[in-house]
Batch of 2 targets.
Target 1
Amino acid sequence: MTTSVQAQAYGGTEVLAIVESPTPEPGPHEVLITVRAAGVNVADVKVYGGVWGTDPAKLPIPLGFEVAGVVAAVGDGVEHLAVGDAVIAHPVRGGYATEVLAPADTVIAKPEGLGWAEASGLQLTGTAAAHAVHAAGVSAGDTVLVHGAAGGVGLVAVQLAVLRDATVIGTAAPGQHDLLRELGVVPTTYGDGLLERVRELAPDGVDAALDLAGTDEALDVSLALVADRQRIATIANFDRGPKEGIRVLGAGGEEGKDVRAAAAVEIAELAADGRLKVFVEATFPLTAVVAAHELLSSRKATGKIVLLP
Ligand SMILES: NC(=O)c1ccc[n+]([C@@H]2O[C@H](COP(=O)([O-])OP(=O)(O)OC[C@H]3O[C@@H](n4cnc5c(N)ncnc54)[C@H](OP(=O)(O)O)[C@@H]3O)[C@@H](O)[C@H]2O)c1
């Protein structure tokens, strides 16, 4: 039997339930993964919170888009994976589980040297970060403004931008500034006066901006500072982003499937050799999914929250 987490209605954490069901068998081009760790993401909360609709026909919704684990069975036509392989998979449906089926083309080798928790939290935020850095054309010599620099996506985005030899200014709460400095980022606080603070930190101008926060302030400051709107990317402002002529990334915007698939492999390699750090804030057993989501929603966590089935 498989134990998993489902949203049985739309609402708050009260709709989450732990359920038992027969362990599925992989169909053609699928693998069954024994989950060792499942990354928790803002998207998991949004999906049952009704942000993307409240269609009753979609209930119950299995949660969890990314996992690390061990291949337990392979379906027909799977050639690059075998039983016993340590892997990471994203996107999957229902990763908050003891076992999950994954399309084989979403599965790659787990980066050696990375723990299960770190490995499970690498892909969703990591590929979004890589997509943003790519879309905004971040390259050597650029000055880049990153809004929400200490979030799940932000911590990867700033590291990728620094690896590209850009100068990175990142917005975050003051308690995150030391961490950002350690990553080579010039930190500043979001909120009133942000435009002036960034102008002072970047007297020669800002070449590109990544909005990973989705606030009006992030968008307004980016538009005021960056001349080329194609070098402003948002992953979180789907209301104003399209109207402003900037790059809007992710479901509902540019999906960037090829960019993200290539990035999945690239960031796994960077993490394997230590050039990309993965920060895990906390781990919870699967049965404590409500506590994990409460911590995520409190926005007090730095780095990933992970469930250990
Ligand atoms: N489109 C896509 O493909 C895609 C993929 C992944 C995520 N997303 C979305 O992107 C957003 C960020 O995701 P995440 O996983 O990084 O979330 P997260 O880990 O919760 O990080 C969000 C960060 O936003 C910062 N923040 C809070 N209020 C802010 C403000 N007023 N101005 C600037 N920053 C502020 C917080 O920083 P402090 O701790 O410093 O306060 C927090 O670290 C979410 O809306 C998520 O749904 C989209």
Target 2
Amino acid sequence: MSPTVGLYGFTGTVGSAILPALVKVHQEGKIKLVILHRESTDLSKLPKDAKLETRVVDLSDAGKEKNKAAVKDLNVVVSTVGAPGLKSQIYIVEALAGSSALKTFIPSDYGANWTEEELKAPGLAGIGVKEEVVKKAKELGVPLTEVRTGLFGLFFFAYKAVGTDVKGNTVQKFRNSLKNPLRLTTLPYLGYAIATLASDESGYSKIANQVLQVYDVTVPGQEIVDTLTKLNGNAPEITEYSEQQYQEDLKGPGAVVAALKAKWGDGAWGPSGSLIEGWKPKSFEELAREAL
Ligand SMILES: NC(=O)c1ccc[n+]([C@@H]2O[C@H](COP(=O)([O-])OP(=O)(O)OC[C@H]3O[C@@H](n4cnc5c(N)ncnc54)[C@H](OP(=O)(O)O)[C@@H]3O)[C@@H](O)[C@H]2O)c1
């Protein structure tokens, strides 16, 4: 029998990228996909032809019994909840505690490898919530797989999060970012990676209680400059992100992006990882062309 995999948060940015990849392996018979959702979640975005089972969860004190029943046969649970709901994952962890079916829980992380020092920045306090969920899972003996990523390609190209604008032909540099690689994770790769891991029963013991590094593109700043020069026919304007602005940004809502710029500039991404088998990553140039 194929493993049963639960997905919570399918309507979000990450969840909607992971959903089609999980639906694909569900339709191939490699997993049985179960959608976990809030009472209020809009289910109209689920593909009708996939005939997915849906189960309501209630991530509050009132939902404890309902949640336990909803997850009791799940072998893998993937959460992609967004920031306001991160803490409520503790209810998922509590529901999973003692489950004899569970092989691993993948909490909503999909972020960088932060050090304790970095997490002291006031603006990064929200990330501490992810650590609380992990701590609770460890306390309750719930096996979990933490998925660390680079900056999402969507944020780099479409949202210009770290100051590169492919069309506008500008690149922002910070510290040694021209020399050091930026780590990017494209959302299709993240979906592929999660679906591949979730459908490989024989690999569950290798991913439980592990931290995985999931990214498919690394590109030094100079290569970004050279690519933009090639695509636009003239060299991009290079602006400098100042130390002063960095310190200022660390205090507020721009802290995650500021801290990612520092990781890039300092070459401090933490442990590296290898591509999940079968994925053919696009080159930076291909991705940049798509953004033109
Ligand atoms: N590496 C990167 O560049 C990067 C970028 C962005 C995000 N991330 C990380 O990716 C993860 C997912 O983020 P996202 O941007 O995909 O999130 P998002 O788009 O905000 O996703 C929201 C999802 O969470 C669900 N949800 C459940 N409880 C909620 C609550 N109490 N409040 C709000 N939403 C709730 C929503 O369900 P309903 O449909 O029921 O509302 C929805 O499915 C986060 O851990 C985030 O830190 C990483």
